[in-house]
Design a protein that fits this description.
The complex is a heterodimer. In chain A, helix 1 (about 5-25) packs antiparallel against helix 2 (about 30-50) and helix 2 (about 30-50) runs antiparallel to helix 3. Chain A has helices at about 5-25, 30-50, 75-105, 110-115. Chain A is mainly alpha-helical. Chain A is elongated and about 70 Å long. Chain B is mainly alpha-helical. In chain B, helix 7 (about 150-170) packs antiparallel against helix 12. Classes of the chains: A mainly alpha, B mainly alpha. Chains A and B meet through helix 1, helix 2 and helix 3 of A and helix 1, helix 2, helix 3, helix 4 and helix 5 of B.
Amino acid sequence: MEFFGLFNYWAFAVLLMTGMYAVISKANLVKKLIGISIFQSSVFLLYISMDKVEGGTAPIIQAGVSDVLYSNPLPQVLILTAIVVGIATLALGLAVVVRISEAYGTIEEDEMQEMDRE
Amino acid sequence: MITLFGVFLLTLLMITAFGIVRAQNLFAAVMLTGIFSLQMAAIFFILDAADVALTEAAVGAGVATVLMLGALALTKDKERPPARRRWLQITVVVATTLLVIYATFDMPRLGDPLAPVHQHVAPWYLSETTRLIDIPNVVTAILASFRGYDTLGELFVILTAGIGVLFILANGSSKNVRPTGPVAESAGLRHHLVPRVVGRLLIPFLVLFGLYVQFHGEYGPGGGFQAGALVSAGFILYALIEGEKAALRVLSFRVLAGMISAGAFLYIAVGLAGIARGGKFLDYSVLLNDPIAGQHLGIILIELGVGLTVTGVLLTIFHAFAARGQKS
């Protein structure tokens, strides 16, 4: 079990760079946005992994029970709001992509650059 | 056992992420992002973050998938296959992954109670919440009261993003628009028996559960953000089944705009009421004569504000995408 103690962070690293790869190598704008949201999700995973306390439970205090260990509530608060902000910004990005598609007739980056050159 | 389950879920998550990046059919990629979010929610849950899991499931797997499908209906759902392998990018990405993994060896193990993150301000929140605010859910206490400023800021980011989407999509010429896909079809899925029956059964419970999550947020996992996502998911489902127009008859753009601004206004008004009663901005203790009752009142009011704004913004964004498809 000790070996898996850092597995969450390794998964974070892999997901972070999977998202990064989609952003830097794909020409399709929707794919780039999906890449950004994978990137973003991996950061959520990093924060939430840090909140866990061995043997702890969700930070909802039960009255009359004393010796309970609670996980750290602070990263949860930060990520809770970040998720909703993430969807709002994703929607903004998608709206821009829709307008680009209406103007150029394509959502592939290199095709757009060719049109601009002409 | 739970560790192994976590490892299993994380492996599945990485496989899904690879699948999303590789999929050339964007429709498939969007569906996989829904699955990705659901797995992520399960992982958050086993990491003791019940509030976050609820939000991720409602927002990531529900609303985000619908929004991306709405955008795909207005653009193209196929990605052009790449001309060649991009070795430079692959090298950069693999090298960075290895670097980040190397850096993780300095991190404390998962669940280590002596990790620095658990030493600073978090124990104070856990020990003082009962004395100062007296609500069981510490996450809600921090979100709404201790860190009310942060939440106010986040709420205005959401508000701004919603207004931005309206500015971008609500006007301008819409040539080249091909009204396809489920969102653009104004008749909805009314003629399909199974989605209609199942949807009709689900919608009231979804909205009811949203309201429960809204008003039970002080005692269990929940609050304005989750409730907003759940309620808007209910209305989006209604719009998908009964058609865009029927949904707008229930909650028109005017009402939605009112909800958005009323929510933000309510939040600020509670903050200013604190000043008027002789306290600081967003200090709820002075709202009533009993500080703890004042905290309760303040938290309920600002959670209501958050819920109103989040519902309004998510539904407005959905309708902005859906209406774009019908214009041509």
